[in-house]
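Input chain follows. Return C-alpha cells only.
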Amino acid sequence: MSSTPLILKSFFKKFKKSKKSNFEIDFKKIDISLISVHAIKTIQVLEENGFEAYLVGGAVRDLLFGIKPKDFDVVTNATPDQIHHLFRRSRLIGRRFKLVHVIYGREIIEVSTYRSQQKEILQADGSIVKDDNHYGTIEEDAVRRDFTINAMFYSPSNHKLVDFHDGLDDLNRGIIRIIGNAEQRYQEDPIRILRAFRVCAKLNMALNETSRAPIKKLVPLLHDIPHSRLFDEVIKFFLTGHALNSYRVMQDENIYSQFFLSPESELKDIDLFISNGLKNTDLRINQDKSCNPSFLFSFLLWHQVNVLWDRYKLELKHSIAGLNQAIDEVIEKQIKLFPIHKRFTITMKEIWRLQPRFENQSPKKIYRLLLHPRFRAAYDFMLLRCESNQLDKNIGIWWTSFIDADHHEKSLMVKQLTRK
C-alpha cells in the first residue's frame, strides 16, 4: 500500500475543519503549474459563460499525487452544442452520446456533459435495453465513474474539490474502491477489472476486499470484450511508465497468464531478463521516448522461443531451422491465447531471427546485419540478453564499439576478427 501523497499529509490534519459542505472542499494544495494551460482556459471560458466546469477523473487523482497528468478531461453542465458554440476551434464527436474536442494546436481537451445513471427500458418482447445516453447532474455523473479516486472533480479557478464518494480519504489510505456493487459494475464493463489492477500498479495502492471479491469468477468475462479494446487496455499496463510494477501485479493476481504465454517454471534468469526489459521500457517512457509494442512482446515471449530453439536445433541439426520452428510454434500458441497484431509479430520474428547473426562475425555478414532495417531493435534485444547473462557480454561490448567507430576503425575491427 502506498504512503499518503505529500500534498495530502498536512491537509488531512485539518480535513474536518476545512470542509464547506459534505462534498465540497477548499483545496489549495494542488500545483496549478502541473495543469495544462489549455485545460484551465477551457474551464474558464465555460465558467465565464455561466456553466459549471471541472477537471475530472485520472487527472485529478494524479494531481493529488503531485504527478503531471498526460490527459486532461473536462466535465460540465453545458450541452455539447453549447460547448461547441463557445469554442471556435472545436468539433463534436460520438454518435450516441456526443462529446466535444476543443483543439489547441496539437493538444486536444475533451469536454463532456454530465451523464445520468444508466436506465433499463423494458421492451414489448420482455427483453431489457440499457439506455445510458442522457444528460444528468454532477452527482449522477460521479456515480457513473469506476473508482472513488477517479470520481473527484476539481476547479483550478476557485480551488474547489468536489468529492461525493470519499475518494480523497481512499487516496489517503492507499485504497482502490469501486463505486457501487462491485460484481454488478464489473459485469457492466469487465474492463474495470484490468483498470483496477492497473491503477494499483501505477500508484502502488491496494484493491479493497469488497472490490476484489468477485473478480476471480468474473475474469473470464474479459474474453467477451472486443479484441481491439481489450488489447489497448492490456498494453497500457506496460507502456505507461510503470511496466515492471504492472508485471508483478499481473503475476500476483493471476492476470498475466490470461493474455501471455508464461514460463512453466519461475527461474531467476527468466525473471531477471523480463525485469531488465521492463525497467528499460519504463525508462524510455519516463524520458518521453517511444517504445514499440513489438519489442515489448519480443522479450516477454523470448523464454518460450529460447527453450524450443535449444530443443529443435538438436532435433533438426541446424540452428537457424530450429529457431524458425521455435518462433512459429510460440506465435501460434500465443495467437490462440491472446492474439497479437500481425504488424507486431512480423517485427518480433525479425528481432528473434537476427539474434544468431550477432554471434556469427564473418566480415560480410557483419556489414549486412548493420544495414538491416531491424538492426537497432535486434541490437537492443541482444544487449538485453547480455545484461541478463544469457549471452557473452563481450559480444555486446564489441558491437557497441563497432557501432560507435568511424569507417576506418570499423575496417580495422573486422580485420582483427579475420586474424583470430
